[in-house]
Amino acid sequence: MSTARTVLTIAGLTLREASRRKVLRALAGLTVVLLVLSAWGFSRLSAESEFGTLTSGEARLVASQLLNLVMFGLSLIAALGTAFLAGPTLSGEIESGISLSLLARPVRRWAVLAGKWLGLAAFGSGFVVLAGLAQCLVVQLTVGYWPPQPVVALALLAAQTVVLLTLGLLLSTVISPMASGVVAVGLFGATWIAGVVGGIGEALGNDGVARVGAISRVLLPTDGLWRGAMHAFQDPAALLQFGQEMAGFPFLSEAPLTAAYLGWAAFWVLMIWGLAAVSFRRKDL
Amino acid sequence: MRHPSDGVLRRLLDEPAGVSDADRAHLADCTRCVGTLAAMRTDATALDSALAPQGSPDVDAAWRRLSAATPGPERAATPRRSRPAMRRPVVAAVAAAVVLTGAGTAAANDWLQIFRTEQVAPVALSTADLIALPDLSAYGDVVVTGDGDLHSVEDAAAAEAESGLDLPEVADLPRGISGEPTYQVGSEISATFTFSADRAAQAAAAAGKTLPPSPAGLDGATVRMVAGPGVAQAWESSAGVPALVVGRAVAPTAYSSGVPFETVRDHLLSLPGLPDDVAAQLRTFTADGGTLPLPVPSDRVSTSTAEVDGVPATVLELADGSMSAVVWVDEGVVTAVAGSLDTDEVLSVAQGLR
Prior knowledge:
heterodimer; A: mainly alpha; 11 helices; 82% helix; B: 3 domains; eight-stranded antiparallel sheet; four-stranded antiparallel sheet; elongated
């Protein structure tokens, strides 16, 4: 059997496995709760008398900010989901002994790993794109705001998920399933906080603190990709309106990503995947 | 009745002896579990066939080959050394750490730019635009009389008295706008412009372009451009920016002697190096008040037409929908309603003006 077919077979099996896990139901449940709550919130935003002090143009700006906020909730759900799916898929199978019977066949270990990665990437990206699109539609129906670059934004969100699950896959080749999930989500949160700290540093003109954000975005590209996605979701007028007063606000992204950074993110995924393959290659089953 | 778990059902395929009698009895009359078991069996068969080795191995021959090839204790270490270094996890991890450190250093020193620097120029329609003159001093002699002098006044009566214009009264304020407006008045401003082919050629040379030939009689032609007086009332929003501006001014007009003004204007607009904002201002001046009497950058604004009190009006909307405006000219007076509103709201304000 050719290696490509092995990869596709394992990817298909991973997708089916993921769709049968309880994590999927939890993900779907959380997403529906988030969508319903945000739909309610957005419809109140346009109706509530408290927001009667906003003109329709200003209400759209607020809506674009809230969309970023809700999308962050969504990306958090996706991060939790993929990290806890990626963890058990390798180390769980090693613990339960499934790998022993699977890897005894004439398949290469890296092909199995590539298949798992492909399946999880398809699953995670699919989830993020579907849920994100649903969220955009909710906002369009309730307040009539449509993001300027929805395709770019959803693609970057999907890329963020892929980055995190690659890290989860690497961790699951070295540590136990639960620990790998916890570490991946912890790193994701820490990078986000470092990004916020860096933003505050930029707002205060403190280069040393601003560097914290830049370095963390390179070490783990989730926060950088998230900020790129946020920039594509938000109303460009928001920067002009809020830019000066709200510098350093974590749900306002000032600029789109450079091609160099996107290239680095792709290289990062390749490098971490390669590391996972090397680690998995010599793993004792 | 409780169904056996997926694990128990799977055990029926792999280790049938390890399944309790109670679970087997359940399976005998539960169609759902039988269905699940059938799906599992299909999966198992699919997986077996997908991962099945091709051909049947000759185990005895393989064992003989292996026995013959088994290295002695002293040779056991050699293949380890010959393996490429990058395949050793420690080496790979160290290499990845070095790459990450290098990239981190690059980011800390701004060698790796994460964000593109991008300037979003605001599309600002200020009250001053109603009575502004284009800066044409690079293309000839300009003599300005009157300075526009935009300033705030106390109330509507003072604004009307100073400008000599009727200040439109807004009947119903749109949602989100309240309070008292501020009033601004600007006086008439006019400029006499004498076109100089030499100066225009210099300006074109400074922009690195050559000048297109001037139409006959243009060199030395004089035009007079007049704008204002104007009056405006503005409502601030909670964010401190004008949420609604209603302004009225005498429409910008141009008079020429000798060469028609359109000839001068079109030639100026065709010149290389003319700044965009100057071009936009220049387009607002007409001999008959025909074009849009407000300078707007056409690339970021979508325009449509409507009717206000039987007069054709131009409706402008920013590409992102955060601002709109409606502008119309009636008997030489231009009236503009603009704000962070949608087009329906500015139109209803415009139609409700008294």
